[in-house]
Write a structure and sequence with these properties.
The structure holds two protein chains of two kinds.
Chain A: E1 4-8, E2 11-15, H1 23-30, E3 49-52, E4 55-58, E5 71-73, H2 75-78, H3 85-92, H4 102-115, H5 121-124, H6 136-155
Parallel strand pairs in A: 1-5
Antiparallel strand pairs in A: 1-2, 3-4, 3-5
Helix pairs in contact in A: 3-6
Chain B: E1 9-14, E2 20-25, E3 44-46, E4 52-56, H1 65-77, E5 84-88, E6 93-95, E7 102-104, H2 116-143, E8 150-153, E9 156-159, E10 164-166, H3 167-174, H4 204-208, E11 224-230, E12 237-242, H5 244-247, E13 252-258, E14 274-279, H6 282-291, E15 293-297, H7 306-318, E16 325-330, H8 333-338, E17 342-350, E18 362-367, E19 372-375, H9 381-392, E20 399-402, H10 417-429, E21 433-436, H11 439-444, E22 452-460, E23 466-476, E24 507-515, H12 527-546, H13 551-559, E25 564-566, E26 574-576, H14 577-591, E27 602-611, E28 614-625, E29 628-639, H15 646-666, E30 671-672, E31 675-676, E32 696-699, H16 717-729
Classes of the chains: A alpha+beta, B alpha+beta.
Chain lengths: 156, 744
């Protein structure tokens, strides 16, 4: 069997298990990266959101065989060189309640801010990740705050 | 050296670093201090050049107790919150002179009924205060000065003459001193420096970096992964099983039958018969489960449907010969009805609900000959301990239970059926394992919020004055399947006989009829008020409209003078009409009710309710266009007495409001042919960002004793929303969820 070779949080890895295994279960069971969460298995909730080649993707429906040559980045890598603006804004706005969906929310938010540096509420509303605790109002504030932080950092 | 107190075991010990650890065992009749499941856990640790460690005893399910409970200790210890590092305590038991021979070492550790703060408010402050006292004694000794000359601030003892010393420098000596056996003086509220101050989630950085671990993240070397195919019919069973194809899936190690619950004993362990597939990893377990060839026996309830339950409820309510249980009767409603100038009547329909925690149920378990380790997301770790003991005979003192963060609770994790399943499997295979549920498993194997019909009737005299109120409800029965509640009233969590307007109307009756139904029934966030406030607060609005009165003025007049009245259910023993009026008036004021000119097509609705010792009102401004309601403003006002963490209370109110909107708009579980019809989020559409309004939260700062806050923000959401819909459109919603009812 051919190995699937890809980059995970900046490190080259090879996978030669079941090619149908979703990336989520590889991350959680084999790579020891449990920050990416399982919520639905059908890409409906976003708890498993990671970045594939820099864009947000729902890892519960991404088979390992589709990842050859891709760059995968998880929540564990988002703040690897100091907390990302969304992570700092999340803390400052006191967003998490149970916290379970927040890794996915943060990965989706970081992706949004890369595409839309000054997002409106409507732009933020395109994030369809579920939060059962109802932290949406604080997420909205935190994304605006993170956008402002990133603008300040760019100006500095 | 150690010092033990009669009232609570309080033990000071020196540390190798020259500091101290302070450990506490709360049970009054404890016989020993140490639990047999030993570990590094402490209530407080003070070491030189280290953060001050404070243990968090409660189950953290998103309600914020991992922050708010340690705040209580930190306040009286008089340390600065930034100096504190919070560490989660495990569930621990110690020998005690109780019937069971044991008691919970750290005091209450479960999460249910919004009780963590009221339970801990005195107890945990005493922990901090007693330790502070010992540190002051050590300073007094060092300086040869009376303790009265000393004060404390931010982890330092201060002398009136200007000298000061850090707690850490006093810790080694303090570890040798006796702890006060009697309660020591606590700060008065005006001196609080942490309690009442906005405090962020203690482990927020762990959460946003993915380091925080939940039950599902338990990783122990060598643990296998289990998934279960469960019988979809209530009390059904395995008819035939061929596990060969599953065992042929690479990585699959075992196929295990899970017995169905014993119908004669009710639901004391797992919910359903099933077949577990145990494998090296989650994906293999899932593929193995998919490969099972299993057929199911339908069981005695397989004809059940939610539609038939509703018809049964309506028949019971319609039939004059029905025998309802009498929950409360003041005056003579029948006489009021006979002499009424006008009778108003309405039915309100409540659906079954699932809890749908973001983290599906799961459990890691390692069963040994005479000990066990459980790691799981729970609300009732004590229940899990009893469950493991009952199923294995292992001494509860040897059952080590870890309490990672739980990815939501909402009442689902008060049950420990997933622990029972893990125990069944572990007993069969003799190896440690982690059981994981899929979303579909979770939605279809829940302990559902009951479903039923409320029938409200009001009598008016010729002047339009309200003379009588009748609340009759028929809903799925609590007695079936919950043996622990065999002695509870039949209407528990379905009828609130002492809630407003009880005591405000001369002729008042509340009656209930339980209906047999196969579905397992559980506790869903604010179980009783969430089930009843919609009917009560909608009907008050309907009466006001029928009597041609303003709905706010009508409610305030009905509440009457500020007074306390008896309240027999959870959150009692009294209910305060002044506090109800207080939150209601503030909500009306904040939204500009009767002040602001509303745009064409907009309407304001409000609702107020007593919830487990707290008081909350919602006011919403909405419009209805093209069959959809839009929330333009949403105000939530709460009075939970003394506030410990305003940022946390605000979060709970915001979150509960969103939860309430989500539920009122779109959520229901339906049963057809004895099976749950929903399976995953597309069938149970939780609110998303695009439809989530901002929530304007206002916390009243009152001097009443603290209630909790986790459940206070949800019961009034649905009636405030539907009352606003009525104000905006004239359309009265009497059935939840609202769904597409506005399209007709």
């Amino acid at each position: 069997m051919m190995s699937t070779v890809f980059s995970l949080n900046g490190t080259k890895v090879a996978f030669d298990g079941d090619p149908d295994m979703p990336l989520l279960w590889y991350l959680r069971d084999h790579a020891g990266l449990t920050g990416t969460k399982y919520g639905c298995g059908i890409a409906a909730c976003g708890a498993c959101t990671v970045h594939v080649d820099g864009s947000a993707a729902r890892s519960c429906v991404l088979p390992m065989q589709s990842l050859a040559g891709k760059n995968i980045s998880t929540i564990e890598n988002l703040g690897a060189n100091g907390l990302h603006a969304v992570q700092r804004a999340w803390i400052e706005e006191d967003v998490p309640q149970c916290g379970y969906c927040q890794a996915g929310q943060l990965m989706a938010a970081a992706d949004l801010l890369k595409r839309v540096p000054v997002p409106s509420d409507s732009d933020i509303a395109t994030i369809s990740n579920l939060c059962r605790c109802g932290t949406y109002p604080r997420i909205r504030k935190a994304i605006h705050r993170a956008a402002a932080m990133l603008r300040e950092e760019a100006d500095a | 050296m150690s010092t033990l107190s009669r009232r609570a075991f309080m033990q000071l010990s020196a540390t190798a670093l020259g500091g101290l650890v302070f450990n506490v065992g709360f049970p009054a009749r404890a016989k020993a201090f140490a639990d047999r499941v030993q570990g590094p856990w402490v209530f407080v640790r003070i070491d030189p050049d280290q953060p001050i460690v404070i243990g968090a005893r409660g189950a953290e399910i998103g309600q914020g107790v991992k922050t708010s409970l340690p705040m209580l200790i930190a306040e009286e210890l008089d340390v600065g919150w930034p100096q504190v590092k919070v560490e989660q305590l495990p569930y621990a038991l110690i020998p005690a002179e109780t019937e069971a021979g044991i008691a919970a070492k750290y005091g209450p550790q479960g999460a249910g009924g919004s009780t963590s703060i009221p339970d801990g408010f005195e107890e945990l402050r005493q922990v901090g205060a007693k330790l502070r006292r010992v540190l002051m004694q050590a300073a007094a000794e060092r300086w040869q000065t009376p303790i009265e000359a000393l004060s404390t601030r931010d982890g330092r003892v201060l002398h009136a003459d200007g000298r000061e010393i850090a707690y850490a420098q006093l810790a080694a000596r303090a570890a040798e001193l006796p702890i006060s056996e009697d309660p020591v003086a606590l700060k008065s509220a005006k001196d609080f420096r942490i309690i009442g101050k906005a405090t962020r989630v203690a482990d927020a950085e762990d959460i946003v970096t993915g380091r925080a671990t939940f039950g599902i993240d338990a990783r122990v070397d060598g643990a296998l992964v289990a998934m279960i195919a469960r019988c979809p019919y209530f009390e059904g069973d395995i008819e035939s099983l061929d596990g060969r194809a599953a065992l042929a899936v690479p990585g699959v190690r075992h196929v295990v039958r899970i017995p169905r619950p014993d119908p004669d004993k009710g639901l004391v362990t797992n919910l359903a018969a099933g077949v577990a597939v145990v494998a090296d990893d989650t994906w293999s377990a899932k593929k193995g489960r998919d490969a099972l060839k299993v057929t199911w026996k339908r069981g005695p309830w397989s004809g059940d449907s939610s539609a038939a339950l509703e018809q049964k409820a309506l028949r019971a309510l319609d039939d004059p010969g029905s025998s309802f249980d009498d929950a409360r009767s003041d005056g003579d409603f029948a006489a009021a009805r006979a002499s009424a100038a006008r009778v108003i009547e309405a039915d309100y329909f409540m659906p079954f609900l699932a809890h749908c925690t973001m983290e599906p149920q799961n459990a890691f378990i390692d069963l040994r000959e005479d000990s066990a380790l459980l790691i799981a997301s729970m609300q009732s770790p004590g229940g899990a301990s009893r469950m493991i003991n009952a199923m294995t005979g292992i001494n509860r003192l040897n059952i080590d239970i870890r309490m990672p963060r739980a990815g939501g609770g909402f009442g689902r994790r008060l049950e420990n059926d997933f622990v029972a399943e893990a125990v069944h499997i572990a007993k069969a295979i003799g190896k440690p394992l982690r059981l994981i549920w899929t979303r579909e498993d979770d939605m279809q194997n829940d302990w559902y919020r009951p479903s039923g019909v409320h029938r409200l009737a009001a009598t008016l005299d010729e002047n339009g004055a309200l003379t009588g109120w009748s609340h009759r409800a028929a809903a799925s029965d609590r007695r079936f399947r919950l043996p622990d509640f065999a002695d509870a009233s039949s209407w528990i969590a379905c009828l609130d006989p002492d809630a407003f307007p009880a005591g405000c109307i001369a002729n008042y009756q509340a009656e209930f009829m339980p209906l047999e139904f196969g579905l397992a029934r559980g506790w869903w966030r604010g179980p009783l008020p969430s089930f009843t406030a919609f009917a009560i607060q909608s009907f008050v609005d309907e009466i006001a409209a029928a009597a041609g009165q303003d709905p706010l003025a009508f409610r305030l007049k009905l509440l009457g003078e500020a007074r306390e009245m008896p309240y027999s259910d959870h959150g009692g023993p009294t209910i305060h009409t002044g506090r109800l009026a207080g939150v209601l008036k503030r909500a009306a004021n904040e939204i500009g009710y009767g002040i602001n000119t509303l745009p064409e097509g907009h309407g304001i609705g409000m609702a107020v309710h007593f919830v487990f010792g707290g008081y909350t009102a919602h006011a919403m401004q909405v419009s209805v266009r093209e069959g959809r309601v839009r929330v333009h403003r949403c105000v939530c006002v709460t009075d939970v007495g003394q506030v410990v963490n305003p940022l946390g209370v605000e979060a709970q109110m915001m979150g509960a409001t969103i939860d309430g909107l989500s539920t009122a708009l779109n959520l229901q579980i339906t049963v057809h042919d004895g099976k749950i019809e929903q399976g995953n989020f597309p069938d149970y559409p939780l609110l998303r960002m695009a439809d989530a309004p901002d929530v304007e939260v206002h916390i009243l700062h009152t001097e009443f004793a603290p209630s909790g806050a986790g459940e206070m923000g949800i019961p009034t959401v649905a009636p405030a929303l539907t009352n606003a819909i009525f104000a905006a459109s004239g359309k009265r919603i009497r059935r939840l969820p609202i769904g597409n009812q506005l399209q007709s």
